[in-house]
Specification:
Number of strands: 2
Order of helices and strands: HHHHEEHH
Strand order of the largest sheet: 1-2
Structural class: mainly alpha
Distance between the termini: 53 Å
Length: 170
C-alpha cells in the first residue's frame, strides 16, 4: 500500500473534550522537550531531574527504581547529569558506603523558572469555574486518569508528583 493510500485511523464521533486531552498530551510532550533542550538533557535525564527536584536528593538505587532502570543505566544518567553540572554526588549520611545524588540549586532554579509559571497559569484556569463546576471537572479528570491507568502497564515505581502518592523517604 502506498503512503497516499494510508488513512489516519478514525475513532468515530470523538467528544471535543477527548480531543483536547489528546492535544494536552501533545503539548505536554512539547513542553518537556523544550525544557529538556534548555537544560541540554534527553528525556530520561529530564525525568531523572524531575524526580530529584521533587525529592531533593536520592540514592542511585532510589533513582533507578523511579526511572525503571538498571543500576548501570542509572549510573550513566547520573554521570551525564553530573558532567552537565545539574547534580553532584555526596556521601550518604545514613549509609557510610553509599552516596546521594543531589540536584544543583542553579539547575533546579532554571527548571522551576519554566515550570512554575506554567503550573500557576494552569492552576489559575480552574478558578474561572464555580465550586460545582470545579467538582465536575475534577471528577471527569479523575475518571480519565483511572481509564489511563486501566490501560497502562501496572507500575509500582514511586511518582511523588501524583496527587495520591504517599510521602516517601530515599
Amino acid at each position: 500500500m502506498s503512503q497516499s493510500d494510508q488513512q489516519t485511523p478514525s475513532f468515530g464521533d470523538t467528544h471535543p473534550a477527548t480531543l483536547l486531552l489528546r492535544e494536552f498530551l501533545d503539548v505536554t510532550s512539547d513542553f518537556e522537550r523544550g525544557l529538556g533542550s534548555e537544560l541540554n538533557v534527553n528525556a530520561t535525564d529530564l525525568t531523572a531531574m524531575q524526580h530529584l527536584i521533587v525529592a531533593g536528593s536520592l540514592t542511585p538505587t532510589g533513582l533507578a527504581q523511579r526511572l525503571g532502570l538498571s543500576s548501570g543505566a542509572v549510573t550513566t544518567v547520573i554521570d551525564r547529569l553530573e558532567n552537565l553540572g545539574h547534580v553532584h554526588r555526596t556521601p550518604n549520611p545514613d549509609d557510610r558506603r553509599g552516596t546521594l545524588v543531589v540536584p544543583e540549586p542553579a539547575s533546579v532554579g532554571r527548571a522551576m523558572s519554566r515550570i512554575i509559571p506554567m503550573v500557576t497559569e494552569v492552576d489559575r484556569a480552574i478558578t474561572d469555574f464555580d465550586e460545582d463546576e470545579q467538582s465536575v471537572i475534577t471528577r471527569y479528570l479523575t475518571r480519565v486518569v483511572e481509564a489511563y491507568r486501566g490501560h497502562s502497564e501496572a507500575s509500582d515505581r514511586p511518582r511523588t508528583w501524583r496527587a495520591d502518592a504517599p510521602a516517601e523517604s530515599t
